[in-house]
Design goal:
The protein is of the alpha+beta class. The protein is 25% helix and 19% strand. Pathway: Alkene biosynthesis; ethylene biosynthesis via 2-oxoglutarate.
């Protein structure tokens, strides 16, 4: 990698990942090599050629709109719980762990969180392990077909995410399945987000400048826009919606895992459009018990890793507990 190229971009590149669903090893390797370049130098890209149906993306967006249109008291019936599942009211988070800038004002959004499903009889739930519990769902009579719509989407996104895990391993010169053990029981988030149009006020954002915590994010946005990515010249580059594309970015744990060979790039959301904005980021992260140690191939000869080993669950909970207002009140 030429370090002078890192962060030097004026637009977000597009990668066709269709070969990852096939068996042609040369095409898979070429896709992984191109992915490596984007992750090293930009940390962001558009993913096209995936097999997540456009109808599934749109169905989730419509379900999201229907939920956020409900009266507040009905949304609060599934208020976010200790397991980070449910409705987070407007302005419910402030990104105090941001490494990008000092953030003092809450994000101008409301959210509905889903994670990997954990039955209430599961030993992890019974033991009170962090983030291990059932999702909260609006009732079927209130929002018919809501749950199957979400679950179908999560299945398709999980398949895509696992393809990207394999491609990331290949991009580092590793066997395609070399990272799989860390994702045997992945930590999965689907966050449905609603951004009302916001006033132009200093320090006020739909989502304040930040980097993501985890491994990778795969974002579906509506046609409103507002996502911006920061380059090395401190310019905010628009990442406008592209039909049938996901915006993918590196999270902090992947940057750390790769000895910061891959860059977790700051980004933000501002919604000055005069329209409501809806987005649905999907976060695919390691198992809570996974130990993240710097990949040896990413450490130059004679050097030591830039970060020590960390248990993913401990790392994640520190950030969640600091950034979400309701966590500060939890017993």
């Amino acid at each position: 990698m030429n370090t002078n190229d890192r962060g030097d971009f004026s637009e977000i590149p597009v990668l066709d990942v269709a070969p990852l669903y096939g068996t042609d090893r040369e095409k898979i390797a070429a896709t992984a090599a191109q992915l490596c370049d984007y992750l090293e130098n930009i940390g962001f890209l558009y993913v096209v050629g995936h097999q997540v149906a456009a109808q599934s993306v749109e169905a989730v967006r419509e379900a999201s709109k229907a939920f956020f249109a409900l009266p507040e008291e009905q949304k609060l019936d599934v208020k976010i719980d200790k397991n980070f599942r449910g409705y987070l009211p407007f302005a419910g988070s402030t990104i105090v762990t941001s490494s990008v800038e000092a953030v003092s004002k809450p994000n101008q959004s409301e959210s509905l969180f889903f994670m990997h499903e954990v039955d209430e009889t599961d030993p992890r739930c019974l033991a009170g392990e962090p983030l291990q519990g059932p999702n909260q769902w609006p009732t079927e009579d209130l929002l018919p077909n809501f749950r199957p719509t979400i679950e179908h989407y999560v299945d398709g996104m999980s398949t895509l995410a696992r393809k990207m895990v394999g491609a990331i391993a290949l991009s580092l010169g590793l066997p395609e399945d070399s990272l799989d053990a860390h994702f045997e029981d992945p930590t999965i988030f689907l966050r449905l987000l609603h951004y009302p149009t916001q006033p132009k006020e200093e320090g006020l954002f739909g989502s304040a400048p930040h980097t993501d915590y985890g491994f990778i994010t795969l974002l579906a946005q509506d046609d409103v826009g507002g996502l911006e990515v920061k380059n090395k010249d401190d310019e905010w580059i628009a990442a406008p919606p592209i039909p049938n594309a996901f915006v993918m970015n590196v999270g902090d744990i992947l940057a750390r895992w790769s000895n910061h060979r891959f860059v977790s790039t700051p980004h933000r959301v501002v919604n000055y459009s005069g329209r409501e904005r809806y987005s649905q980021p999907f976060f695919f992260d390691p198992s809570m018990d996974a130990m993240i140690e710097t990949i040896e191939a990413c450490v130059p000869t004679g050097e030591t890793p830039k970060s020590g080993p960390v248990r993913y669950g401990d790392y994640l909970m520190e950030r969640i507990d600091k950034n979400y207002h309701y966590r500060k009140k939890a017993s």
